[in-house]
Amino acid sequence: MASAETAAEHERILREIESTDTNCIGPTLRSVYDGQEHGLFMDKLEGRIRNHDREIEKMCNHHFQGFVDSITELLKVRGEAQKLKCQVTETNQKLQNDGKELLTSMDELRQCRLQQRNIATTIDKLTHCLPVLEMYSKLQEQMRAKRYYPALRTLEQLEESCLPQAGSYRFCSIMSENIPHLRTHIRDVSMSDLKDFLESIRKHSDKIGETAMKQAQVQIARDNAVTSQQRSAGGRRIRKEACSGTEVDRTGSNPFSEKDSGILHVEDEEEDEIPGAQDLVDFSPVYRCLHIYTVLGARDTFENYYRKQRRKQARLVLQPHSNMHETLEGYRRYFNQIVGFFVVEDHVLHTTQGLVNRAYVEELWELALSKTIAALRTHSSYCTDPDLILDLKNLIVLFADTLQGYGFPVNQLFDMLLEMRDQYGEVLLKKWNQSFRQILDQDNYSPIPVASPEDYQRIAGQFPFQDPELDKMPFPKKLPFSEFVPKVYSQLKEFIYACLKYSEDLHLSSTEIDDMIRKSTNLLLTRTLSHCLQYAIKKKNVGLAELVQIIINTTHLEQSCHYLEEFISNITNVPPDTINATKLYGTSTFKDARHAAEEEIYTNLNQKIDQFLQLADYDWTAAQGGGQASDYLSDLIAFLCSTFAVFTHLPGNAIEHATLPGKVAQTACMSACKHLSTSLLQLLLEADVRQVSMGALQQFNVDVKECERFARAGPVPGFQGDTLLLAFIDLRQLLDLFTQWDWSTYLADYGRPTCKYLRVNPHTALALLEKISRSMKDTSRKNNMFAQFRKNERDKQKLIDTVVKQLRNLIATNQA
């Protein structure tokens, strides 16, 4: 059984050897040697080899005769083939000899045809390449000439038309590779030109703005001239709109710029032509760069870059210098730069298609307007010179009119000018305050002497003064007022002119201008001039004569107020009786000043009286009084007489409007007498005076009589009868009561209208009586300290005690 399996395995291996590639026979043989029957396998292999050899031998024996026949036929053919070879060789030799000339001719013909074809091909290729070369040469020439936009167009034509037709040549490849670099170079160069352009317009903005504002000024001057000619026939009036000739449609052209160029120009050929923006700045770089970027498909990039750079420049332009407020030139440079910036933007807006649009320009203008107004508010607040503020206002008006001519809204600028008007008014008030102070300090407070008619006319030209009585007097003569009256009046007119100058060209109506001037003038009168007059009245060392002269001066200034009303109406062309028209407060101002001067006169007199009274040195315990008035009172009376003599001899008493000093003198005299009477009574009733002897009371009575003598003498004319004596009536009745010792009459008639001592107050009588009682008791005690009172003294003391009780009862009854 095992041998059968071995034989089968050997048979399989042998078949595998026969059918398998020799390269893969190794594993098969290894399987034989791995077993134990390799000897048997070798025998099997030898047997198989012998079988194959027998089969090969049978095959050879079967085909051998055919092989022999084939060899025999082949030998026969070899001889024939040798003959044929010789014939062919001979024929070939003959053919070669015969065809050598033909081959030479054919070769020559082939070369000619090849050359002809090459020439035709070359001509065809050159026909396609020459335009490329010519175009490239043109491109190089345009690049050298810096004509970048035509170069870009040439480059586009070269790339799209010429190079595809030329074919694939090396130079074409080089050109194709160089085209992006050329485009980049053109773009970079055009951008560099644009940067130079932006730098140029930044440098020239000041000059462009100055030129534009000059043109606007010329245009406004022409409009004003035309308006004046039209107004000369119909009378003088204030122009309602300062820029009526410069109103423009924002979407259209303007009188200062053409829509197709956006450049300033002057229409009057007879005048020197003012250069426009295109004469100061070359705008071709921005146009060229715009076209180049449009062709390159990067227009949006260019627009964004341009707008971004211009916004940066706008912020720089709108940043004012820190010392701009010091001079008008600083403001002028600031405005010139802003105007120049927007003139350029207006030019670019009208000469390019969409590089900047109206919305962008308006956005920039809103930014500029807000920053400009803020800067002006800040810097103008530092200004204390009204002339500089006025010049600044005129410059702002010109600035606004110029930009309004380019279609920019400027209403906010005019609103700001109206705000600045209040500051201008305050600065004017400060300046005029100094002027008024200087006039009042330098005035001599004396009537103006007039030596000739020329002097009179000169003063009458400064101040509206009319006096028929004074006109009749011969020269030389004196005007009733001092120098400060015409000077103050002239200053008031100058102030009104200053207010009018500011109101010009602000697009205000005549009524608004009139109202503004009147309100400002009222502030000048009620605040500035009033304070200055009060200062002049209240300052130290001012004399009574000066105060009286101030009263006269303010009276004449008060009477001139209606002339100021007419003056304002004439320059504003607004009738003074217009409804809601503001009235001047000059009358009340000068009245208040006059009243203050009068009060100061009364106060000064009273202070002088108090100073004399401080010199009073009564001996309240004197046994008997002297026969003459006290020294201090004599000096006081002498002072009052000399003082009221100044009032009496004031110039112009005979003139109609000079009656006031007499009234002031009467009031002052009455006030002085009343104050003197009251002060003497207070002196008598002073708490420090514990005792008053009858002798002291007699001396006091002598002094009062001296006062009455002064009042009776009439120190100031104009009092009727003994009116001035009424100032001392209280003292007189009190002293009569004590000197006459008429208590029975006083007590019996007290409270009746016909009472002899009607002005004697029970409290006053009681206080003085108690002082006399103390004096009598003290005197008796000194004369006879240990003895009883003498009978008459005891009786008098009893009487005093009785009167004291009755007075107390009377006081108690009245209080109940």
Largest sheet: 2 strands, antiparallel
Helical run tally: 26
User: Could you give the order of strands across the largest sheet?
Assistant: 1-2
Give the beta-strand count: 2
Shape: elongated
Instruction: Give me the strand/helix succession.
Output: HHHHHHHHHHHHEHHEHHHHHHHHHHHH
Unreliable segments (pLDDT under 50, ≥5 consecutive)?
A: 233-271, 649-660, 785-789
- SSE-based structural type: mainly alpha
Mean pLDDT: 79
Rg of Cα set:
66 Å
Terminus-to-terminus distance: 178 Å
The fraction of residues assigned to DSSP E strands is under 5%
Query: Helical percent range?
Result: over 70%
Family: Belongs to the SEC15 family.
InterPro entries: EXOC6/Sec15 (IPR007225), EXOC6/Sec15_C (IPR046361), EXOC6/Sec15_C_dom1 (IPR042045), EXOC6_Sec15_N (IPR048359), EXOC6PINT-1/Sec15/Tip20_C_dom2 (IPR042044)
Domain Exocyst complex component EXOC6/Sec15 N-terminal: 44-213
Domain Exocyst complex subunit EXOC6/Sec15 C-terminal: 412-771
